[in-house]
């Protein structure tokens, strides 16, 4: 299948791309940075997903994974509005089989920066809207909403021993997920899953049970 993934230069998006390639799928990545995935079945477009007029022409997308996101940098424009642009262009069409939006546990709890929480809460609601509209194609649409994940975006707290200890006190499983674990979830929700749709799947190691957000001042 042809899989379109946004935000593939690092972190969760890169891990998802590499897993789908390993499984034999053709992967197309969109990122505002240079591509870092090396595989003969991978095609990379450098593009800012906020610029809907410059989104590349990509036909016959079977699976769309909206992973591109940011924190404290035009969160609503990047995390929500651009996700909508991408989905309406590539995802809501008769050939689509599955759409997955990468949300956040913060969309469930509100325990993070205001615009970030608002953007991810919007992703949760939009996921349900899209699920209703692509159901006529036999397609699913869900959001995967991680808690803490070991990615470069989270280095400011991962590399701070004091804050990290505080975060672990708030996390029942006493660890954060790896990007590869999130990739496994993404594969399950888009390829294995055929019936669960319109759901916001919270995968956070129990972090949201406590509802406390720890970050640098």
DSSP strand tally? 9
Main sheet: which strands, in order across?
A: 3-2-1-4-5-6-9
Shape estimate: globular
Helix and strand run: EHEEEHEHHEEHHEHE
Percent range for β-strand residues: 15-25%
Query: What is the CATH domain class?
Result: Alpha Beta
Which structural class is indicated by helix and strand composition?
alpha/beta
Per CATH, the superfamily is: NAD(P)-binding Rossmann-like Domain
Specify the biggest β-sheet.
Answer: 7 strands, parallel
- Tell me the CATH topology: Rossmann fold
Radius of gyration from the alpha-carbon trace, in angstroms:
16 Å
Mean pLDDT: 95
How many domains? The number is 1
Summarize the amount of helix as a percent range.
25-40%
Q: What is the annotated CATH architecture?
A: 3-Layer(aba) Sandwich
Structure commentary:
This protein has 217 residues and is of the alpha/beta class. The protein has one domain: NAD(P)-binding Rossmann-like Domain (Rossmann fold, 3-Layer(aba) Sandwich), CATH 3.40.50.720. It is 38% helix and 18% strand. The chain has helices at residues 11-22, 75-91, 106-109, 114-134, 155-158, 161-170, 179-192, and strands spanning 2-6, 26-31, 42-46, 63-66, 98-102, 140-146, 149-150, 177-178, 200-203. The strands form 2 sheets. A 7-stranded parallel β-sheet has the order 3-2-1-4-5-6-9, with helices on both faces. Helix 2 (75-91) runs parallel beside helix 4.
């Amino acid at each position: 299948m042809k899989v379109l993934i946004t935000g593939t230069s690092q972190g969760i998006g890169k891990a998802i791309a590499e897993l789908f390639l390993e499984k034999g799928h053709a992967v197309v990545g969109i990122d505002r940075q240079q591509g870092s995935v090396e595989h003969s079945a991978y095609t990379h477009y450098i593009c800012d997903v906020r610029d809907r007029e410059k989104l590349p022409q990509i036909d016959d997308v079977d699976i769309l994974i909206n992973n591109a996101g940011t924190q404290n940098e035009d969160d609503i424009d990047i995390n929500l509005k651009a996700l909508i642009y991408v989905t309406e262009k590539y995802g809501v069409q008769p050939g689509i089989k599955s759409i997955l939006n990468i949300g956040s546990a913060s969309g469930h709890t509100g325990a993070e920066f205001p615009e970030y929480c608002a953007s991810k809460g919007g992703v949760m609601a939009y996921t349900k809207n899209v699920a209703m509209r692509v159901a006529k194609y036999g397609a699913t649409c869900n959001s995967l909403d991680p808690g803490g994940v070991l990615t470069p975006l989270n280095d400011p707290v991962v590399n701070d021993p004091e804050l990290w200890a505080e975060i672990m006190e708030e996390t029942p499983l006493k660890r954060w997920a790896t990007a590869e674990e999130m990739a496994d979830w993404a594969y399950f929700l888009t390829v294995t899953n055929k019936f669960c749709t319109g759901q916001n799947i919270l995968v956070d190691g129990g972090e949201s049970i406590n509802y406390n957000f720890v970050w640098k001042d």
